Recover the amino acids of this structure.
């Protein structure tokens, strides 16, 4: 029995059709996989950027608190209003922390604690930093700045860890504290 050539090509055509249909299905699958992987990578990159901005804000806050503590360490003979001096130092050192879309209900604020002895302290605050206008005042604290004792400036600032509309830490609060000896 001799086979005809037509029947010999028929299975090859069926295989070719199946290959084309399989390729179309796999092409759709590749698009779905790409969309899934791309969204995961985009979330990862935006997360890295968001955390980087938050770490930058923390460093800025730490430097601003350090500058404010150095201003107050001048002592009661030089500083007549510690709160106004700290407010001015924080506002000058951290102008980038005046952004209401980031901090939400936790604006840049500070507390000053002056130790009159190793075990006794007097505090003022928390006061919100005023970037333009009248700064908070605490002239009575100037008398409590005792030479060779510690003065502690604590600054706080809210942070925003929102990625794709989801806030991963809604009550995020950055804190920096610096202690200096009054001169």
């Amino acid at each position: 029995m001799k086979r005809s050539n037509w029947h010999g090509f028929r299975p090859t055509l069926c295989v070719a059709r199946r290959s084309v249909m399989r390729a179309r299905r796999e092409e759709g699958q590749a698009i779905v996989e790409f969309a899934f992987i791309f969204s995961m990578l985009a979330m990862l990159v935006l997360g890295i950027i968001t955390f980087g901005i938050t770490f930058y804000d923390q460093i800025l806050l730490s430097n601003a608190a350090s500058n404010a503590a150095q201003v107050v360490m001048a002592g009661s003979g030089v500083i007549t209003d510690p709160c106004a001096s700290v407010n001015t130092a924080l506002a000058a050192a951290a102008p980038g922390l005046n952004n209401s879309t980031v901090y939400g209900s936790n604006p840049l604020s500070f507390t000053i604690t002056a130790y009159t002895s190793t075990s006794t302290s007097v505090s003022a605050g928390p006061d919100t930093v005023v970037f333009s206008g009248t700064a908070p005042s605490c002239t009575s604290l100037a008398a409590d700045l005792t030479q060779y004792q510690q003065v502690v400036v604590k600054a706080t600032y809210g942070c925003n860890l929102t990625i794709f509309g989801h806030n991963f830490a809604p009550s995020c609060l950055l804190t920096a504290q610096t202690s200096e000896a009054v001169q």
The beta strands are 109-115, 121-128, 150-158, 162-163, 166-167, 173-181. Residues 5-181 form one domain.
